[in-house]
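User: Hi! I'm a student and our assignment asks us to look at how structure tokens line up with a sequence. Could you show me two examples?

Assistant: Happy to help. In each example below, the sequence comes first and the structure tokens follow. Example one:
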Amino acid sequence: MRAFFQAILCFLGMFWAVSANAQDFRLNEIMVSNDLAHYDDFFEFDDWVEIFNAGGLGDLAGHHISDDPNNLTKYTFPSSDPGSTFMTPGAHALVWCDKDSVQGVMHANFKLSAENEGVWLTAPDGQTVLDSIVYPPQQTDISYGRSCDGCEDWVHFNVPTPEAENVQEVLPTPSLYINEVLLENTAVLVDESFELEPWLEVFNPNPFQVNLAGYTLETEGAGENQSYTLPTNSPVETTVAAEGFLLLWMDGEPEEGGHHVGLVPEPSNQTFKLIGPDGVVADAYPVSVSFANVSWGRQVDGASTSDWFDIPTPRVTNSLVVVQPDPVVINECQSSNLTGLQDGLGEFDDWVEIHNPTNNPVDVAGYFLTDRLNDPMKWQFPLDEGSATVIEPQGYLVLWADEDGAQGWNHMNFKLNGQGEALVLRSPDGFTIADSVHFGTSAPDNSYARLPNGSGPFAWTEEPTPGTCNDCSDGFSEETLDNACLYQGSNPLMPGQAFTVSEPATMHGMGGNVVLGLEAGRHCLPQLPAGLYFLRSNSGKVTKLVVRR
């Protein structure tokens, strides 16, 4: 009996020793673009953050997590479900960043961005930051986490490890093809630094993406053999999409990005090899050289026969059928929207405006828009939205860059970088460029717009004009504006509020579409999405009206 009590006391002593150690919560792994990697209890593929407890027994209740350093208490873990928030030593807890807290205490009220952003874990006092991570741009379905649980270094995981120990898994090398090579590039395509460099295209025939991080590119048969291993710290630049293409710049300038390799091949016949991290040769491809700006590639993607291409096809199929775009333009964009135009849910998101400067309607269904030069088909205008993708003559279409496609077809799968980047609009072939723009760092609430409207060079402006002419008075001629005589009421106006028009008028949306017909007199504003509208009388008077929600 005495031995029994001694054992009990020993157990309680061990329990107390563990409990006495302070809890040590650490951000351990994040997934900020989750398509197929891991789903929650509701079978939804949402963003997530993994917290690791490197200390003693602890409870997340009362702690805070946020994606905004200026609002550290954005989400507070409730105390209503200790079974979810209580953590034993060495345990992992998954926080779903899905902006859907009704699904449980471990579902935060914000989403994460795949672009540069951060996560902050804060103590119950709302001020003491326990841990934080500011992460680089992230690739879909590849997580970013500590090299081992609680370790200092952060690395990327091709196989994410939610709610499990952080351990790297080397994937077997799949079937890949060196699909096209251009060794003398003097006029075909420039890289992000506007330099004409030799390039090599990799084709992935598989139904899953492949990250080439850790793969080695070798040259043989032209002077001294060369070799370069692709870095592991930038999967957004080294991942080949499922059944997609990746361009590697062979410029000897790896400091320019993960898809720039540290070798420069001789412009002569040679063999290129692509070797996986497991030592397996994915492809060995003999290249024949012709004239400058003529590429050597497989006749059909992945085929055994090759030929010269007078019109090279970088980043797209070698069987390309060129589709010439209509003369639509990127007319304006805003990458730092703090107090300007709101979307239908009242959110101040980035936006891009497309303009049709012609006298005929243009349907942009099937066109592509991207903010990454190495991912030309990042977002596609849907093919099944009917007239919604038709831009009327001299009309405009505003697209929201908010990574939130659930809010509507015109909400794209990327955000704009306030520090500057490129935008490229392509025709439905995914290759032919309709228009492009490179913009730099934006001041808050400024936009980058064509001046003159639709045709001029871009310039920064403190007065954005989404959905309207850039250098007109709110899209209409100055002579027609007459605020005092046409409209009486609050401005901004909210649904349900009353206003008066002095004569018959129509209310137009940003694209020029009529949303209301109004007789002279008093009216009550119906439920309309927040945004910018125009009242236009039958006599030609025009008033700008802002609707808030």
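Example two works the same way, sequence first and then tokens:
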Amino acid sequence: MKCRACGQQTESQSHILRECKTLHQNETSKITEADITTEDTDTLKETATKIEEIMRRLIAEPPGTTPAAGTAPADLGRGDAPPQPQ
């Protein structure tokens, strides 16, 4: 299955969390194995927030049109259905 963000590469955990250039335009948004396996609760909270943002962006936009970080609708990815066209 092609990546939902870039539509170019095969979608995998490593691609989504670290490699996708559409999702990660800078190093700060990338998630490392250490970020996930740490016992430091502050790091885990920050990592969970990053993962939520990545998931929002994947759900919100068709391939190749993912918006810049922080611009996806805040209510997506939390069990809410996306807004329906009227």
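Here is something you could point out in your write-up. The chain is about 35% helix and 0% strand.
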